[in-house]
Structure formats: structure tokens, C-alpha cells
Amino acid sequence: MIKKYKSKNGISSPLGLIIVLFIFLILVIIMVPYLYNIMIDVNQSTNYDMALFKIDYTDNGNVIIIHQKGPSINHENIEIQIDGKPTEKQFKSTITQGDSIAIMNKDFDGGEQIDIVANDNVIARKIVPNPPN
Questions:
Q1: Which of 12, 91, 95, 123 is most exposed by smallest CB count within 10 Å?
Q2: pLDDT at residue 90 greater than cutoff 80
């Protein structure tokens, strides 16, 4: 004969399940923002790492920056700098392959360093040549 065991001191099954679900919910609430930030960081760094920018010069001394290859990039995270300072001219919308921007020669004397910066990381750099005499 099998005896059924009844505990008067234990937690009932529905209450135990509610406690376990409550603990799980608290863990989810804590972990989701953390994991979301990691995913955003990985996605952004992947996009910038895969982007290829070309910096060219025209005959009249203008600088042309072209997004040559790679995925589209949010323009708010890209900054064009001359000698470490942001230029007045920046991309104004999502940057897709083939997009370009021109910086006029009045901004250059020659020898300036042009950087394309994404999230405080330089992803392209070129030194402006001295203008022809």
C-alpha cells in the first residue's frame, strides 16, 4: 500500500510557481537593457568597421569624401574632422554606398589631417597635399 505524503509546512505549488515566475521576471527586467546595449554596440561597430571611405582631391584643391563600400550608416554617428576639429560641412542624412560630400579648398592650406570619425574611432584618414603654386 502506498502512502500519500501531505506537508502542512511547505509552500503550495501555485504559490511556488508564482515566486519562480516573479524572480524570472525581475531577472529579465534587469538583463534586457544590458543585452540590448551590447547588441547595439556590436551592430554599430560592425557597420563602421565594414564601411570604406575614400578621400580624394580635385584639381582645384577641393576634398571629396565618398562612401565607397559597406552598409548604410547613420549620419549622426559620423563626423568629418580637420586637424581634430569638426568641419562645418557634415553628412546630413543616412550615408549609403556612393554618397559623397565636398569640402571646399578655402578650408585648406595644405598639410591638414582629414579624419572620418565614428564613435570616437578614426575610420579613415588622409593628409591634404600642399596646393599647387
A1: 12
A2: yes
